[in-house]
Protein 1
Amino acid sequence: MTDGLGAAEDTPAAATVVDALHRLCLADLVWAERYRGWEELGRGGSARVVRVFSRSAGEDVALKVFLHLSEDDVRRFQREVHNAQRLASPCVVRTFSPFLRDGFAWIEMELVDGPNLRHELERRQAEGTPFSLAEMLEIASCIVRAVESAHEHGVIHRDIKPANVLLPGGGAPRAKLGDFGVSRLAESTRATATGLLPGTPQFVAPEVIDGRAADAASDVYSLCLTLHLLFSNGRHALPVPAGATPAQWLRAQGVEPPIAIRQHDSSLPEALESLLLQGLAKDPACRPSAAEVLARLVALESPGRAPTLALARAASPARAALIVSVAGGVLIGAFAGARWSAGVGEERAPAVSASPPPAATPAAPAPANPTPAPELRVRVSAIAADRVSFENGGEGVLHAVRVDLVGESGARCSAGLDRLGEGEDVTLGFGAFEPPPGDAFRVRAIEISARTSSGLRTLAVNAERRQ
């Protein structure tokens, strides 16, 4: 049985499966060597999430454990790991190492200490202590940044809902999006050949119910349903009675108009109401992209208040993550300073479009001397044996910054920044990258991409080793 926030009740049968799964894991030699303890954090249709102590990391981690994997399950497992590891946003729950065994498997993930948004909304609704508008905007911005990062890397989440949004206890960032278990690459074949509906009935887009493949626009629909719940203190955007069946929810997604958010709270900004109503349009072509949702949310923040900046997940002794240097500072290391390559300033088109392209119109004649696209003015100031430093030398804030270290063998390690202010100088320790570069890793090139005011820009920097 599910409620409007989209979670299932536990059953004794599920607990029996967990017990059997725990015994199976303890019998595995690698598991017994790597981990200690077992605390269940959550359950899904095909997996359990548990908290354990990692002996190698020296800290608690979350493990998503899958039982009785068929050939299709193995492919889904591999797809989930591949998709999640493409994302380096601090607002996405990080995925580390996968382990595949005969009959079961698990994934090591970042442990986020704190409730999920579903449980927090339920608690606040019961206690009559809703979030402040500033808190809601911060949480919303983090969720949208995570979705935007996924879309920029060609990943469709397909199950955005409050239960998949985690709220770190330390509050930095205020929220993280997790559970990419049914996600897929935008260019991959449809992952629902079995006829199963991806996602949760309370949050699935109308076009997906009609049989179309989930895409960025359907993610935006689920995202705006989640944001409506956040800004309304747990009230769903669709007029569906308590205890509604999945069939009633699916019908409502297709035919019921959404409730305007200001009907719940007239003090909320009209611009927020307009944004959510547009995101909940039945026609996916009418919805904004995740990047547009983020820009409009940032515009709603209080005057003079900078958008939320969450550079990396909390560092630990086992995973040194991020060092912020003084603006203009230079670190000298074993690798040389960088030079621009021929790829500087070249634009890489986003992998996903949030809506179908408009109807074709006659093309305007190209100007005789077209204006070149603005370059991404990020300067790499130093590449050391265990860190890389760079600064934003352009005019304006960069969003969704992704840094890729390319090794001599072609291997890649990725890290991400939520934003990089104008003139800001940042140093990323190698521990911030996933997978972490090993001792033998040698940087051949660095690729940096970021969203500017004029769109997504990418540059490449070659690194030459200095003796």
Protein 2
Amino acid sequence: MRLVYNTALLPLGAAAVVWGAWPRTSATARLERDQRLGRRLPSVPSGAVWLHGASVGEARLVASIARAWRSRAPRLPLVVSAVTPAGRAVLPAPPDADASFFLPLDFAAVQRRAFDAIRPTLVVLLETELWPNLLWEGQQRGIPVALVNARLAPERWRRYRRLRSLYGPLVRSLAAVLCASATEAERFAGLGALPARLSVTGNLKYDLPAPDTDAGTLSARFGLDPGRSVVVAGSTGAGEDTILLDALVAARREIADLFLVLAPRHLERAAEAASDATRRGLRVHRLSSGADRDAGGADVLVADRIGELSGLYALGAGSFVGGSLVPVGGHNLLEPIAAGSPPLFGPHTGHVAEIAEALLAAVARAWIRLAREPDERAKRVRAGRKFLDANRGALDRTLSALSALLDPAPRGRAAVSP
């Protein structure tokens, strides 16, 4: 199966050769290209643990693991990677990790270069980062690879089952599959994960720290009057911003100065979101423009800087978490709960056009109620934090399981043919 996979990658390999030779004007772009091709990787002490998460959400979990592990084992070298530039931007820096880099492309030769440079003693992948050549390279070198906070969305699980001849051996080769829930464990078991290496450690997102800010501090930062009501719409996707902006307009008929923080999931959509707001007669301030205190003179703050959203939720009397009005599956509902902002979310359906009017009205009513009724908001915040507290502990369980993989005692790794 390895030959089939790498043969299928040949056209992409040819494109990568051209890409590697293409001139880059930006030093950042050159570094990204080189690291994706397995070059200019950081120099770290031998025996490092390599932690990898794809984008912003997974990179925040990488940061949480790195900080906790560094506090437990200060001398253990830690190196971290991500796929997207946004994820790379929120990876931990020294002293929480020794180095960070872009994940090299999953070509066999590139992964060999990466393992030669990093020389890891353990590779830890977040959620669903099952890159075949990376896994094969680790297996060939006898380096344990663990999947933590492991999860498989139903559509991905069905796809992996269809490709079981590829993913089955890869999943069986994992030294540990630490699942976010029992449902996820069942899915990985169905793909062939070995029972002795499969466990439910819980969802690491429950253990993410609360933001180190509050509504009063943020109001002062943005020049907002202390009594002004604020709502937050985070991680919004294409097709959602218009509904949420219309909900704001509707809610402002009853709360005239209601202020919206709008944070598109992908920053390249920020300009479009700002234009959508302007077309509705709303005044817009973009976070990237600086002069934060000027935001108080606007109606909408477009959060177009990486790493700000989790703190900005603390401003919201109520929030909305995107990816839930379109068939994306929704994004992290725990961030606003941790920040003390009751979250709303959509129906996880693609039929937005048919239900947009009802959604608009529902979001507007909920925002009005949360802004006007402090007792209702406080009740929801207490319930949310109680829920968070009841589900914490995944980080400790995960670190204990990973630390066991560093034990020099035999782990009983089964030989798995590619």
Protein 3
Amino acid sequence: MPENTPGSEVTEEILKEIKDLGSNTEKNYEELSKSVHTIQDDVKRNEEGLKNIDTSKMAKLAEDITLRQEALDKVNQENEVKLNSRFDKLEVFLKKMPTSLAGSESKSDLEKESIELQKCIMVAKGHTVNIHTAKSLVPDIEALKAHNEAANAFLRVGKDNMNPDQQRALLAGSDADGGITVPQAMSSRILTRLFETDPIRDLAASEKITSDSLDMMIDAEEAGAEWQSETIITTNEDTPVFKKLNIPVHELATRPLATQRLLEDSGINIERWLANKIADRFGRTEAAAFVSGNGTGKPRGFLTYDNGTDFGEVEQVNMGAAAAITADGFAEIKYSLIEQYLNRGTWLMNRSTVLATLLLKDGTGNYIWRRGLSDKEPSTILGLPMRMSTSMPTIAANSLSVALADWKESYMIVDRLGITIQRDPFTKKPFIEFYTRKRVGGSVTNSLAIKLGKIAV
């Protein structure tokens, strides 16, 4: 925005605050890095007498690392709240400015958003649509803007207090159960936050559908092959053995509450606020199902399959020690995964399991855990990246506390297109309840690409 443009001082001030928050986060990472180096140097200086070091002292060193990381995570969360607040101020300010000053999205972006909205509305109304082509759908930017304006008015004041034009636009986006299709900007925020809430959705493969389930054909056995030439007749008659896998979607709902005063505050980005609330609740619930859901009324988690190497089974590798993890146990899991999946493998475990892993050494005396201070440089165990999930079981006798997988290959998350909201001002008076629904499923698709570490009894 040019310096002489009205409102430039406001936007520059907000953008400066956003930049400062990013700089503070970078400083926090640098301080944590120095702390980790200090701990490692202390251990190195005492390496010769390591056997005489009190186990409690080693545990304290390991705990210090995780506590510092937790403190950093907390700062990052606080920064995220502040960033969202600054962005909301900027967004509200720009919306109040004339279009020629505030700028606008490109026509192509609006056309894509319009098509996506039409798909979601058709799915909500029970119509089927090929979401990959949808050649019959024509972009309608004015209808998109009208729907988004109506949806925002619906969230703030309810249908009865909307003007006739807004009610007509809202009616076009209503589903059979009386909810409205969530605006695309809000839907995108929800999906983005779902990826950030728990690593499983970020790690696994995902697919959007418009039906009640996804059918996949799985090559259960490798097809035979042989070298041939013009003078040699091919004798291999082996054919692939395919298995049909059906992944149904299940309804997931949440009911966040808002006060009337919050909804009446024009300075609050109500879509962002509600999207964050919804995503937080959806994220925790679905992540737990992806890990341990029984498949009845919810996705089937990868921990619930029978032990084995056949189709529909997931192998459980014994980690050796009773009610504990060992370095040898991690090595057993790692090398039970065949090479093509091992090279893309990522560990998944609870934070408390990671804490116990920090003390483990391999046969040459090297720690199997290596620090990582950001998503771009993740911590590793035996050279493979590690992610933490609160949905994974803690260490206990007979528990499946460790998972290693090529997640894109081994687990599929299926989302039915569209999220709908019903506004209820009566049930929880004086609060406004937003009954929000989405449909999601999940299943293991390739059991050869995942291994589970089982703690001995």
